Structure formats: structure tokens, C-alpha cells
Amino acid sequence: MIETTQDISTRDGAMETFIVHPERHGPHPVVLMLMDAPGIREELREMARRLAATGYVVLLPNLYYRAGRDTVFGPGVLEVGHPERDRMRAIRTKMTIPPVMDDVAAMFAFIDAFPPARPGPLGVHGYCMSGPYALAAAARYPDRVAAAASFYGTWLVSDAEESPHRTLGRARGELYIACAEIDELAPLPMVAELKRLFDASGAAGELEIYPAAHHGFAFPQRKIYDRAAAERHWERLIALYRRRLG
Question: Which CATH code for domain 2-245?
Fold first, then answer.
């Protein structure tokens, strides 16, 4: 495996991005892996490596780059009242979908000139806050995003600009939406409304609820890590990318 960290030029600055891909037999299909709210950390890089080992170029950008290069947080980022959590939330609460769509376009431009990357359709998936970003990217760039997945995406039905519940029908790629049964950031009534809208949109794909799983179930370092649900997430994700990207 080959891994590097590079700055990708965007409309708003330099977006530090972890990139990992197999050493041989390229070029490889591309996947954009979008971080959750606690931000870039070794746990996410390990997940990117696991995915890349199955045959993909994986880009993991620091979506908080507009707030500076010190947007990496300590272990207290998940503890209510901890200064690291407060620092993260001060940045997170300013995030909106349209600027992230600009970041996605910047990554397209980067990979089009990146030799290990295979030209053409790619995949995007996101966790937590980035679930909506992945689905929005499929709608904003239907000719480029062949597969998009959201894992315990937060507030998938909201009044946010480009909220995915309004744009599902614009996607041409296959969508996979995985929701935790126990998730205050995407409660089951919201999931039911999203399922209704998803079915009515005509979009290809599936919405699946993971029984008894909590928000964040796929992250190995979380207390609520659910190994069975996490492995199911890997199986669903890799199968999606195999179908749509090869």
C-alpha cells in the first residue's frame, strides 16, 4: 500500500487530504471517504487503509480545513463539557452542504490528474455529519458519482440547503443509507419519513436500519462499537462499490 498526505487546492484554501491506494495493478477506482464530526484521526485512516486494500484509491479529506490546520482533536472530543468537544462543535456547527460540494469538485479535479486513479465514475461515503454530504454529492454530481453511502448520517431530513431528502431523485448512481436503530441524531420517525421520500424519489438503492445498533457503531474506538454491525457495514459498502465501480 502507498499512502501520502497532500494539500488539495479548493476555492477556500488548501485541504489536507490523506490518500491511500494499492501499490500495484492500477489505475484503481476512486472513493471519497468523508469524516464524522470528531474529525481526522488514526481510526479513520485505518478504515481508509482497509478499504484501499480491496482495490481502491481512497481520499480522506480534513473537511474542517477552513478553520485551520490545528483542527485535530484529542480523545475528549466526545465528552460533553470537555474543551475539545466545545472546540470541535464551534467549527462543526458552521458547516453547511454547499461549501463541501465545492470541496468534492476540487477532489474531482485532483484525481483527474492523479496517475493511480482510474478516470470516470467514483464513490462517496460519509459517516455521521458527512452522511448528508455523500448523498448530496450524488445529487449535485450525478454524472460523476456512481455510488454513495451514508452511515448513521445526521439530520438527513432538515431545512438545510441541499438537504438530501429534497434531492434524492437527482442522483443517477446507487444509494445506500444505513441508519442505527438507536440514534438521537436520526430518530426513527425521521428515518421513516426519509424512507417514504426515498421510495417516492425513484432513486436506485436501499435504506436499511441496523437493529439494536447505536450511532457510531462502525468505529472500533467507540464504546458503542458493534462488531457485527460494523462488519455488515463493510460488507454492504464494498459490495456497493464492487457493483458500481468494479
Answer: 3.40.50.1820
